[in-house]
Write a structure and sequence with these properties.
2 domains, Rossmann fold, alpha/beta, globular, two-stranded antiparallel ribbon, 41% helix
Length: 358
């Protein structure tokens, strides 16, 4: 079955479930304002009872469009609705019915402020369930949700799916893609490290002469596959180099050991302050985010003082989105789109034990 047909079929089943009363979720629009622009939001409420709380859905990187049905997110709303929880999601700027222009380079700190504006609106309107608000977030949300909790410590719980470790995860994905494409692991690691060294030099204001000297030492420039894969200009004359440096809008600091961009400064300290229950869900075939590093960091911070706060669920056959897969490669063609067995159930059981009766 093709991916498109599978998406359509699963969406039909979920929509039928909603209409037949199995999900018992009613969806209403609920907009709010951030930085002078209207952001279009939707709240999904259980139809048979007042919500026991609200789960704010925090998606990963990329554009959103919650004006259309989406089998993946629909499964979340329905699962939460069956527990008596409402869900709130909204479209990013320039997406769906939201005003403004989409910014792919939006900082995670600005995204956190955006969510806090949404929380304030829910509470200002006294939306049923807003006295108990939790977060569900995937991928990039792993940077954002801890910042929200830092500024809003009354958050009741956090479900982290394919969470991050505070550093830019793109190089991990790049290295994984190169290995899946057939490059030896040792070469992939070397090329990515050299590439990061070059990026750091340019972003930190290195001169063109320093760039040329570094270029002569880098092995990745002798590899046609890597150069083509990354679409790197072999020449990159001085005028283009200087113009590129001028266009850099965001100045990131980099981790000294790995040369990775630091997206959340002092991330370990931010995580150390979390006191609400946290459920960390990872797929062991996630080759977009380094889930091992994330879990090590979570255990060292969130779980260090009180083991009861942190719960970890690992799915051996799960990719970055917790969809069943064979390899987890970003270009893997899946025969079907099927969530890992027990993924939704793990969240609902955990919520019953850690959030609903607290």
């Amino acid at each position: 079955m093709s991916n498109i047909l599978t998406f359509t079929f699963i969406s039909f089943l979920l929509n039928f479930s909603l209409m037949s009363g199995q999900g018992k979720v009613k969806t209403d629009t609920l907009n709010f304002t951030f930085e002078g622009r209207k952001l279009s939001g939707f709240i999904d409420r259980p139809m048979d009872a007042e919500p026991a709380g609200i789960v704010i859905i925090v998606p990963g990187h990329g554009k959103t469009n919650f004006t259309k049905k989406n089998w993946y997110y629909d499964s979340l709303y329905m699962s939460f609705g069956k527990l008596g929880l409402a869900s709130f999601r909204y479209d990013k700027m320039g997406c769906g019915n939201s005003d403004g222009q989409y910014n792919h380079e939006q900082s995670v700190s600005n995204s956190a402020k955006e969510i806090i504006a949404a929380i304030n609106e829910l509470k200002r309107r006294k939306v049923p369930g807003s006295e108990k608000i939790g977060l569900w977030g995937i991928s990039r949300a792993g940077y954002i949700c801890p910042l929200v909790i830092q500024d809003y410590p009354s958050i009741t719980f956090w479900i982290s799916v394919s969470g991050t470790d505070g550093l830019n995860s793109f190089p991990y994905k790049l290295q994984s893609d190169l290995i899946f494409a057939g490059l030896p692991e040792s070469k992939a690691k070397l090329f990515v490290a050299e590439y990061l060294q070059q990026k750091a030099l340019i972003e930190n204001g290195g001169t063109y002469e320093e760039y040329v000297a570094l270029k002569k030492r880098h092995e990745f420039r002798k590899n046609d596959f890597f150069m083509s894969y990354m679409n790197i200009d072999r020449e990159f004359p001085k005028d283009l180099y200087d113009n590129y440096q001028k266009t850099l809008k965001v100045k990131y600091k980099r981790d000294k050991e790995s040369n990775l961009r630091i997206l959340v400064p002092d991330f370990d300290k931010v995580l150390n302050e979390i006191r609400c229950p946290v459920l960390a869900i990872v797929g062991e075939k996630d080759f977009i985010v380094d889930w091992r590093k994330t879990l090590l960091l979570y255990n060292k911070t969130i779980g260090a003082k009180d083991k009861k706060i942190l719960t970890i669920k690992r799915f051996p056959d799960g990719n970055h989105s917790l969809i069943k897969c064979k390899t987890g490669a970003s270009n893997e063609r899946l025969d079907s789109m099927e969530l890992c067995e027990g993924y939704l159930n793990a969240m609902t059981l955990w919520l019953k034990e850690n959030a609903l009766n607290k």
